[in-house]
Here is the input.
Amino acid sequence: MQSTKKLIHVAVGVIQRDEQIFISKRPDQLHQGGRWEFPGGKVEQGETVVAALTRELMEEVGLQVLDATPLMQLEYAYPEKTVLLDVWLVSQTEGLGEGLEGQQVAWVHFSELSNYQFPDANQPILDKVLALYQAQ
Ligand SMILES: Nc1nc2c([nH]c(=O)n2[C@H]2C[C@H](O)[C@@H](COP(=O)(O)OP(=O)(O)OP(=O)(O)O)O2)c(=O)[nH]1
Ligand SMILES: [Mg+2]
Here is the structure.
């Protein structure tokens, strides 16, 4: 049967500083609440993905995006919604990185990422990030 659910386009930033990656914890009441995530959010109508990424990272964690390159796109069907994660590698930012919405945040060494629980959709992103560092 063809799905009639709409696809939610999400801009996601894998924010790196050398070997550290910035992650934040989704507030409990949100979809996938309590899981760690790469900061980001929904692309609004008429907005480019980079504009959405830049806006979300400033709003959520106070980081200004200075350089971002596309990393991967993946679609994932949760029972309640299907998301298109548009994932960018953000290799230059300005700011400390703080939980401006009251969420927990952390700079984590790439080798420690597997100790954090992410949404189920994120596994290919985690694999890709590890592969990037292992290739260096
Ligand atoms: N930001 C982010 N969202 C993710 C990740 N993995 C994953 O499945 N998602 C899902 C959870 C949500 O259903 C959706 C992102 O929505 P969101 O709640 O961050 O959207 P938003 O920041 O625009 O929030 P709002 O304005 O709707 O409150 O993508 C991830 O690593 N980062
Ligand atoms: Mg968000």
Notes: The chain has a mean pLDDT of 95. The chain has one domain: 7-134. The first strand starts at residue 7 and ends at 17.
